[in-house]
Amino acid sequence: MDNQTFTLEDLKRILREGAGADESVDFDGDILDTEFEDLGYESLALLETCGRIEREYAITLDDSVVGEVRTPRRMVEVVNEHLGQTAPA
Amino acid sequence: MSTGTPRAVVTGLGITAPNGLGTEAYWAATRVGKSGIGRITRFDPSAYPARLAGEVPGFTASEHLPSRLMAQTDHMTRLALVATDWALADAGVVPADLPPYSMGVVTASSSGGFEFGQGELQKLWAEGSQYVSAYQSFAWFYAVNSGQISIRNGMKGPSGVVVSDQAGGLDALAQARRQIRKGTRLVVSGSVDASICPWGWVAQLAGGRLSTGDDPGTAYAPFAPSAAGHVPGEGGAILVVEDEAAAAERGATVYGHLAGYGSTFDPAPGSGRPPGLRKAVELALDDAGLAPGDIDVVFADAAAVPELDRVEAEALNAVFGPRGVPVTAPKTMTGRLYSGAAPLDVATALLAMREGLVPATVTVEPDPGYDLDLVTGQPRVMTVRHALVLARGHGGFNSAAVVGAP
């Protein structure tokens, strides 16, 4: 699992596993900049999702991520920033 | 019946019971005495002293609920949400068409979401706290069914949960009636309970009232000389309770109304004062403005613990006279459903009124010493205008409700 990157597909998989997916949302459409709230996810769904990302990628996200990260694009960026920090030089 | 007090009528039923999923299947089984009690299949019960339960058959939650809800709900909540959908459809109510604050939700609960909670506790012990679902924060909780029903259906009026074991099923309906009287148009009420999982099972075993019999035909035998505890079940009934005028305005079909209610708490053991069940019955009759002779049938609490059976028989004989009223316990076909039991009995009473048929108490060769006119063997064809439903909760809760025909 060296040189990991976290993709939108990874995020969608983890969202589905931890919180399900709103049937009225087109998950395969362009959702990178759609706010999580509009995708049907409340803060608890994001808390669960962050927990699963932390476990799977062995990183620790700041508590503020749940409140401040509003879109999939930003979440993917934040997770990759952490992966970069923890990756071997 | 004063003009200032609006009547609370029942316009929709949603039933999830061990002997039938959905009102039609439940009534088809119940009217002919078909039991849903059997050996536990939800986990391997062979190492436990009690091995029978009433499990709801054929329920695949994902066929009824979106994945967003599947991730965050216990089995009991899934049953309650689906029962609510069915009750609202039965009532012809589309919640989105009504003002959110005109609709409330009042359910009961006895134990919360044990199966979900067990899974998360297992993750906690086996893998660590970071593996526990964020949804454990509410998925186990007593109030979760009311909350999820409220969110799914956009019901923002007066809501809550009552926790008083089996009595809670009637206490919730009484609270729903209170809210109707105070001006809420519609309240989703009743209750569904389910904790047939190892954690829930050991909690129930600790109560000391479970039957250890292995024969589904005889293990739960209230009012019988062989009574030796009850078989638990899962499920219950959700009822749409409405202000009578509001229901009439939209042309709703009415099953019946909540005519009376009374509740008491037993005195402390050793006080020498009598148990409170008789008083609860008298309060409910007074509240309904009825005399004992007006009651056509009693749906008994039916604890199947000899001392509790004796208390119930004595209360009924004191109010109605020996063999003074037909008594039945259809819960012998489902097991005791805890907070789900009494709402299911209320629903059953309403269905009995509609058909003119009182379902039988199965599994029972009654002890003649109780002097009860117990409906056994065959269902009884009779007109039912008023039914009395009794429910007692562990620790001294007694509740009684009178259900009236439309």
Automatic annotation (TrEMBL), chain A:
It holds the Pfam family PP-binding. The keyword Protein transport does not apply. This is Acyl carrier protein. Keywords: Phosphopantetheine, Phosphoprotein. Residues 5-83 form the Carrier domain. InterPro entries: ACP-like_sf, PP-bd_ACP, Ppantetheine_attach_site. It comes from the Bacteria.
